[in-house]
Amino acid sequence: MIAIRRDEVEATKLAVNRLDFHNLYPSKTLIRSIEYLLEQNSVSGDKRYLEAGLARLQAFLELGFCYDDGESVFSELLSRLGTDKKEQFPLRAYNARKIPLTRAQISGVIDRWSPSKYHTMSKTALVEDIFQKASEKQLGVYEYHSNANPKGRAIDRVYILYVEEEASYLYNDSLERYYIFENT
């Protein structure tokens, strides 16, 4: 197993989680970033590009994205480093949780929803909004707050919905967990 710099992984995770401000998709951005680093390694022969790519792959997996989404790119990276998925990531199951796109499943992954007047909407309306946007493929990034109180006295659980051409997924900020909707 090749050692990975934790500070680089954590910095990548922080940066990627804020891409939604620019309507960019974290999973695609990380895969493209690794593709770019592979290209730079091909041109220069500098192994540091591969090491940087490995840190991004680790961040990708820790954020809960599915390895299969970038399997060909990731396998190429690991091959150039002289390792493979099983050797580099033993005993780990890094996969976003796949759930059916139903109102009941969406409701089930939403933590306690505050009755605060500062929430984005009621939980019922939230579930319906997520369901409609994902099922109708309303492309974009949507953010929901359980308690956006400007005084910050209570916990604000943030959910971010990413609707892409290929898939839709919901990010639970407090759990740092992604849920990929099936049948989208």
Report what the structure shows:
The protein starts with 5 loop residues before the first helix and ends with a strand. The protein contains seven helices and five strands. The longest helix is centred in the N-terminal third of the chain and has 19 residues, at 26-44. It is elongated. The chain has two domains: 6-88, no CATH class; 97-182, no CATH class. It has a five-stranded mixed sheet, with helices on one face. It has helices spanning 6-16, 26-44, 48-62, 71-80, 85-88, 103-109, 123-135, and strands at 97-100, 140-145, 158-163, 168-172, 177-182. With 184 residues, the protein is α+β, with helices and mostly antiparallel strands. The model has no long low-confidence stretch (mean pLDDT 85). A hairpin with a 4-residue loop joins strand 3 and strand 4. Helix 2 (26-44) runs antiparallel to helix 3 and helix 6 (103-109) packs across helix 7.
